């Protein structure tokens, strides 16, 4: 099936699909034009060289950059909050867990002899003393910081890009901790 634009008396009416081009009706000013869809520097819809053209505007360099930066920020958040492994133990790194680690470290500073049961990301419980609590919290902090560091590196690459191809070439999916 091919798309055809129905134009009556010079005004676009609609697009329909047919297996063959419908016949024009010149005395009623009815014409059919094959639809061509493409991209260009500016949006355009209308007759061009006998075809009905539906042209979407290509995004500007700034629009491409903004999209890539939004994608990057989303990926960093996913990586940051997706967990990490410390001494073979899966550790949650979501925002709520990060806050709980801070509270546990403060508690360990107040009571250095404290020993607590801590639920790991896989649902198992481990017993942690003050030093272990601090070590887990520091591992989470290091993981989170590594995610922000990687985002900063990639952001600099995206901002330095001067062509659409250079922006597209920035690989967001490698070298995350």
Please explain how this structure is put together.
The protein has helices spanning about 60-80, 95-110, 130-160, 165-170, and strands spanning about 1-10, 10-20, 30-40, 45-50, 50-55, 85, 90, 115-120, 125-130. It has about 180 residues and is an alpha+beta fold. The strands form 3 sheets. A 5-stranded mixed β-sheet has the order 2-1-3-5-4, with no helix packed on it. Helix 1 (about 60-80) runs antiparallel to helix 3 and helix 2 (about 95-110) packs antiparallel against helix 3 (about 130-160). It is elongated, with a radius of gyration of 29 Å. The mean pLDDT is about 95.
Keywords:
177 residues, single chain, alpha+beta, 5-stranded mixed β-sheet, two-stranded antiparallel ribbon, elongated
- The tally of domains stands at 2
Structure summary, number of beta strands: 9
Gross morphology is: elongated
Largest sheet: number of strands, sense, barrel closure? 5 strands, mixed
String of helices and strands = EEEEEHEEHEEHH
Helical content stands at 40-55%
Uncertain runs: none
- Helix count equals 4
Radius of gyration: 29 Å
Short summary:
The chain is an alpha+beta fold.
Could you give the topology of this structure?
Elements: E1 2-8, E2 11-18, E3 30-40, E4 44-48, E5 51-57, H1 61-81, E6 84-86, E7 89-91, H2 95-110, E8 115-119, E9 125-129, H3 130-160, H4 164-169
Parallel strand pairs: 3-5
Antiparallel strand pairs: 1-2, 1-3, 4-5, 6-7, 8-9
Helix pairs in contact: 1-3, 2-3
């Amino acid at each position: 099936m091919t798309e055809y634009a129905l134009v009556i008396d010079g005004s676009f009416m609609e697009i329909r699909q047919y297996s063959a081009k419908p016949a024009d009706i010149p005395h009623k000013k009815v014409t059919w034009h094959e639809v061509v869809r493409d991209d260009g520097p500016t949006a355009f819809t209308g007759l061009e060289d006998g075809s009905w053209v539906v042209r979407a505007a290509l995004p500007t360099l700034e629009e491409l950059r903004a999209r890539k930066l939004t994608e990057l920020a989303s990926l960093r958040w996913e990586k940051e909050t997706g967990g990490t492994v410390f001494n073979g133990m899966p550790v949650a790194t979501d925002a709520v867990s990060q806050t709980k680690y801070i509270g546990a470290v403060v508690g360990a500073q107040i009571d250095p002899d404290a020993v607590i049961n801590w639920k790991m990301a896989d649902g198992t419980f481990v017993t942690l003393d003050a030093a272990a609590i601090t070590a887990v919290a520091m591992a989470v902090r290091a993981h989170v910081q590594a995610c922000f560091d990687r985002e900063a590196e990639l952001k600099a690459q995206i901002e330095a890009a001067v062509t659409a191809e250079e922006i597209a070439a920035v690989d967001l999916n490698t070298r995350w901790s």
